[in-house]
Amino acid sequence: MTAKTVKLTTEGGEIPLPLLEGSVGPDVVDIRKFYADTGKFTYDPGFTSTASCQSAITYIDGDDGILLHRGYPIDQLAEKSNFMEVAYLLLHGDLPKQKELDEFSYTISRHTMLHEQLATFYRGFRRDAHPMAIMCGVVGALSAFYHDSTDITDPQQRLIASHRLIAKMPTIAAMAFKYSIGQPFLYPQNNLSYTGNFLRMTFGVPAETYDVNPIIEKAMDRIFVLHADHEQNASTSTVRLAGSSGANPFACIAAGIACLWGPAHGGANEAALNMLREIGDVKRIPEYIARAKDKNDPFRLMGFGHRVYKNYDPRAKVMQQTAEEVLKELKLTDPVLDVARELEHIALNDAYFIDKKLYPNVDFYSGVILNAIGFPTEMFTALFALARTVGWVAQWNEMISDPEQKIGRPRQLYVGATQRDYVPVKER
Ligand code: ACO
Question: Does domain 5-61 bear CATH number 3.40.50.300?
Answer without folding.
Answer: no
